[in-house]
Design brief:
The complex is a heterodimer of chains A (301) and B (748). Chain A has 301 residues and is of the alpha/beta class. In chain A, 43% of the residues lie in helices and 21% in strands. The N and C termini of chain A lie far apart (44 Å). Chain B has 748 residues and is α/β, with parallel strands linked by helices. In chain B, the strands form 8 sheets. Chain B has an 8-stranded mixed β-sheet, with helices on both faces. Chain B has a 6-stranded mixed β-sheet with strand order 1-9-8-5-6-7, sandwiched between helices. In chain B, strands 11-17-16-13-14 form a 5-stranded mixed β-sheet, with no helix packed on it. Classes of the chains: A alpha/beta (301), B alpha/beta (748). Chains A and B meet through strand 8, strand 9 and helix 9 of A and strand 3 and helix 2 of B.
């Protein structure tokens, strides 16, 4: 049984596609069609035909082929294949956390998102790469657009366990140096690390002209702090234990957490990055749709 | 007037102290807090960074918040427990005075000495007014009980603590002085028992309002009673604030008739009766020419002026001759003074036409004066053919065989003369007759079988007199020994007439034979006469309502010359009259004592009623008295002095009269004086002010602590919610509540 299929929950993906045939169209438009495309002056050299899919821009339909064969084909050009997307997935130990009420851990959720996005990207024959990171690069799959690559991505996701401490800032610097071609970089992480160092890393990406999207995955308990009884919190990633009286500490904790989220949001805005906060109790499709539609809006404007 | 006061100067306490156990509940929040801490869950946590920062930043504040909330919660429970325990404090004469509800027991003297009427109003009215004032000035929530000092009237007027002032005042205003003497001991005992009630009220007061008459309070009656009153006062003062309010007077004069009597229980027609009156002047000053009146059947018959020496009895007497058969109401009156009740005294004098005496002859004889009863009959009714006997004693002779078939209740007395044997049936018949008031005289003789008498009549348990007949002494045939009577110093009233009258011949009576008798010890048996050999001659025993007299010799000439001696007729008359009185019953009583009315068999079916001096009617019901085997009516409602009329509701039966008089004990108004009640119970009037005045001064309708505490608790509940909602607002409101509470307590 191909386990990776579970990441491609047909319902989830169908919903994603049904949302204005979101992902592929958006990415293509973003990469090749849009006047805001970073890839201005793309080559007019014809590369291949691709069958029309619902939601594709009608401007690229090859009407001559249609006249001959009564089929809709889109003309694709050489430069369009240049679009690469890096999925940076945080696999530090903190991603392992799953509260009682949540169906998925942050890791599970994150890799579902990563898989879905990779699928979307590769389905439109763009190149998607995967990089799992904690305080170092754990796995690095170079971007490729072959459908087989998707399998490899899924395989990697399947066989990675969240462990180790976070050290996103340094890893971002390293990756920024490593990825030379301007790409779309989607970071999926809880960002539970030193925020300043993370922001510096992200700044480095931006400096290298990458388009960065930040998907911050959190557990609902981390935001709501729903505990009533006294709790002994055992820290992940070598954090110490802490006995706490949740009812009295709730406000203070939430204040700190919200402050952190706001800082992330502000930092993203400052760096002109896309940012979305995804709670693991939210439906996956809704989360993705929200992210993509937001992105579309931003690029559209 | 003197205030006798035992009262704490400062008092703090709780009306319901056992509810203070609720204070323990204050530990509940702390306990919950601790238990809560011990019970925890474990979880992994990713966002530890924020938790640590929050803990570090806010732990001190959180702890402070926690402690404050915990404090408020504990305070709520603490104050609630204290409020339910109804705390109070009392500082006499101080600026701050708060009154917890008081359990107040009034003991008001209602004895007849309280009727003393000085300037316009009686002591009793004054006592009532004091009590009413006290009640009306009490705080709402105070509970009252009311006791009166009386003897047989109910002591308890309000037996359950009442918090309704109007009801209590109403009860006080309805109180009337009794005509009884005051039984202080009983009333104080009741007060002491009442202190056990209304446990929820910790503050207790016993207020005794009395004239503190020496006779009632520190009685010369008995040392035992006096000690008892003292120990009761001590016991009450330990459990409560004891306030003795004296409305009495120290040296007021009072004259009283303390006795009105006659030697004979009944009178006979046209025979003068001497009526003895004892007067007493209870004062230091002698009085001369005080008018004393005798009224018979409401008519002034006689009056005289007497001198009353200070603090002494004065005897005087009237003589009256009755001309009508039946009951007569006699009254003596003394000139009125400020306590008029004891200046009148009543007596009932029944006037009889006949005294029926049954003579049982044990020896038949054809000779003149040969029967055993012949001399006796002659002595009782010396009738001659030419001059019939006019006396009231009507003797009738029967033979011994007829005894069991005779209706004895028709006779006032039965005399047995020389009857040889008695059956048990006859014994029982006689016994029942005596018990129901009949008079029986047993005389012996030659025929008497001593063994039979010992087994029947003199059987120790069921007999008539507990004695044993022994041998016959002397020899009547040979006249070997001569015996004479020894009058035993004439102590017995029956032989009093012979005292100083040697010509009557009692001591010179010659007897030749008698039965020696051994009298067994018995409180009801009394020796009237004995022989010069010290053997008993005439023995009297009271049995039930009646009397039995045994004469151990014969009443004829067989055993001596007594029957023809001058002492024989008067002694026999006296003995018969003496034993006959049992059937008349007592016609007088003191106020509060029961009247016992004897009924004849033919009166059982009647439904009589008693008419009191105030014309109030009481229907009566006769009941069988087991002690005397007779039907008697006990009438207990003798609350008034005067003449009571028993109406048989039959036109052919005259009303029977009874006299009820006040106890002379209450006439002595002498005050108890400080030396008779232990000095620690006294405080000088100029020293600590009277509690009554104190209470009346500044006390208003305090609601006590409790309400304030409850308001504080309510406010704290709101504060607790505010603390949880916005700590700063909650903390400020907490301070405000505490400040306002303290202010309200201070100004209460």
């Amino acid at each position: 049984m191909n386990d990776y299929r579970k990441y491609l929950d047909p319902q989830t993906l169908a919903k994603v596609q049904n949302l204005d045939l979101a992902a592929r169209q958006i990415v293509e438009g973003y990469v090749s069609g849009s006047h805001k495309s970073p890839f201005h002056g793309f080559s007019a050299e014809f590369a291949q035909h691709r069958e029309y899919a619902t939601g594709d821009d009608l401007r690229y339909v090859d009407w001559k082929v249609y006249a001959k064969s009564d089929r809709y084909y889109l003309k694709q050009y050489e430069a369009e294949t240049n679009f690469t997307c890096y999925l940076l997935l945080d696999c530090s130990e903190s991603m392992r956390y799953r509260s009682e009420n949540a169906a998925l851990s942050k890791w599970d959720y994150g890799r579902l998102v990563a898989a879905a996005l990779a699928y979307v990207v590769i389905k439109q024959q763009d190149a998607a790469g995967l990089c799992t990171i904690n305080n170092q690069i754990v796995d690095f799959l170079r971007p490729a657009s072959q459908p087989t690559h998707l399998k490899q991505i899924h395989y990697t996701l399947e066989h990675t366990e969240p462990a180790g401490e976070s050290g996103l800032g340094n890893v971002f610097h390293e990756l920024a140096e490593r990825i030379s071609r301007r790409s779309l970089i989607i970071i999926i992480s809880d960002l539970f690390d030193d925020l300043d160092s993370i922001m510096l890393g992200l700044k480095h990406f931006r400096h290298r002209k990458h388009d960065v999207s930040l998907l911050q995955v959190i557990d609902p308990a981390e935001q709501d702090f729903p505990f009533q009884e006294p709790v002994l919190f055992r820290g992940l990633e070598n954090q110490p234990e802490q006995m706490a009286e949740p009812r009295s500490l709730k406000k203070a904790y939430q204040a700190e957490f919200e402050k952190f989220l706001k800082n992330v949001q502000r930092g993203s805005r400052d760096l002109k990055m896309d940012y979305a906060l995804i709670r693991t109790d939210e439906s996956l499709d809704i989360a993705l749709s929200a992210f993509l539609s937001h992105r579309q809006t931003r690029i559209g404007s | 007037m003197t205030d006798i006061l035992i009262y704490p100067v400062f008092a703090f306490g709780f009306a319901s102290p056992w509810l203070l156990a609720g204070l323990l509940t204050a530990g509940i929040p702390v306990l919950i807090h601790l238990l809560h801490k011990r019970k925890f869950i474990e979880t992994e946590w990713a966002a530890m960074k924020f938790l640590l920062i929050a803990t570090k930043k806010y732990s001190r504040r959180v702890r402070f918040e926690q402690i404050l909330v915990l404090l408020v919660r504990c305070l709520i429970l603490l104050l609630l427990a204290i409020a339910f325990s109804r705390p109070y404090w009392s500082v006499q004469g101080a600026f701050v005075e708060s009154a917890a509800p008081v359990h107040r027991i009034f003991v008001i003297d209602a004895s007849f000495s309280m009727r003393w009427k000085g300037e316009g109003r009686s002591l009793f009215e004054e006592a009532k007014e004091l009590a009413t004032t006290q009640v009306s000035r009490s705080n709402p929530g105070d509970a009252f009980q009311l006791i009166q000092i009386s003897n047989t009237s109910p002591h308890t007027l309000i037996s359950r603590p009442s918090r309704q002032q109007t009801y209590v005042i109403d009860e006080i205003s309805r109180m009337r002085p009794t005509e009884e003497f005051g039984n202080v001991e009983q009333s104080l005992q009741t007060a002491l028992e009442f202190l056990g009630q209304a446990q929820e009220l910790a503050q207790k007061e016993v207020i005794v309002i009395s004239d503190f008459q020496a006779q009632s309070w520190s009685s010369r009656q008995t040392d035992q009673s006096s000690t008892r009153i003292r120990s009761l006062l001590e016991a009450i003062s330990k459990k409560s604030a004891l306030i003795l309010k004296d409305v009495g007077l120290s040296k007021e004069p009072n004259f009283a008739i303390i006795d009105f009597s006659s030697k004979s229980v009944f009178a006979t027609l046209n025979q003068p009766v001497r009526l003895g009156i004892t007067l007493h002047n209870f004062s230091e000053l002698s009085r001369e020419n005080v008018n004393v009146q005798l009224l018979v059947d409401g008519q002034l018959i006689n009056q005289k002026l007497v001198n009353l020496p200070a603090n002494a009895d004065t005897q005087t007497e009237f003589t009256h001759q009755f001309t009508r058969i039946g009951d007569h109401r006699l009254e003596v009156r003394l000139a009125e003074d400020l306590l008029p009740l004891d200046n009148r005294r009543w007596k009932v004098m029944p006037v009889k036409k006949d005294i029926h005496v049954l003579l049982v002859n044990g020896r038949q004889s054809g000779d003149s004066m040969g029967k055993a009863t012949d001399y006796l009959k002659l002595a009782l009714s010396p009738s001659l053919k030419e001059q019939p006997w006019q006396g009231i004693i009507k003797p009738q002779v029967i033979s011994e065989g007829e005894l069991s078939n005779t209706e004895l209740s028709l006779y006032d007395a039965v005399v047995i003369c020389d009857v040889a044997l008695f059956t048990e049936n006859e014994r029982d018949l006689l016994k029942s007759y005596v018990k129901s008031g009949g008079g029986l005289i047993l005389s012996l003789g030659a025929q008497v079988n001593a063994d039979n008498y010992n087994q029947t009549l003199f059987q120790p348990n069921s007999g008539l007199i507990p004695l044993k007949l022994l041998n016959r002494q002397g020899d009547a045939q040979k006249h070997t020994t001569l015996f004479e009577f020894d009058p035993l110093k004439y102590q017995h009233p029956v032989i009093e007439i012979f005292k100083g009258n040697p010509d009557a011949g009692l001591e010179t009576t010659h007897l030749y034979e008698y039965f020696q008798a051994e009298v067994l010890p018995d409180p009801n048996t009394r020796l009237i006469l004995s022989y010069d050999t010290n053997d008993p001659a005439i023995i009297e025993r009271t049995l039930g309502r009646g009397k039995v007299i045994l004469i151990t010799t014969s009443l004829d000439r067989q055993w001596g010359t007594w029957a023809i001696w001058p002492s024989f007729p008067p002694l026999m008359n006296e003995l018969v009259l003496s034993v006959s009185t049992g059937k008349w019953g007592r016609r007088d009583a003191l106020v509060g004592q029961p009247l016992e009315i004897m009924t004849l068999e033919n009166q059982i079916a009647f439904s009589p009623k008693m008419i009191a001096p105030d014309q109030k009617e009481f229907p009566l019901q006769s009941a069988l008295d087991r002690n005397t085997d007779s039907r008697t009516i006990t009438f207990n409602q003798t609350f008034q002095s005067g003449i009571y009329e028993l109406d048989w509701e039959k036109s052919d039966l005259e009303k029977t009269l009874y006299a009820v008089n006040v106890s002379p004990r209450e006439s002595d108004l002498k005050h108890i004086g400080p030396q008779l009640i232990p000095p620690e119970y006294f405080r000088s009037p100029s020293g600590v002010p009277s509690v009554l005045n104190e209470l009346s001064a500044d006390r208003t309708s305090h609601t006590g602590f409790s309400e304030n505490l409850l308001f504080t608790v309510l406010a704290l509940i709101v504060v607790e919610q505010l603390l949880l909602w916005r700590f700063s607002i909650g903390a400020l409101s907490f301070l405000a509540v505490m400040f306002l509470s303290c202010l309200s307590f201070f100004f209460q």
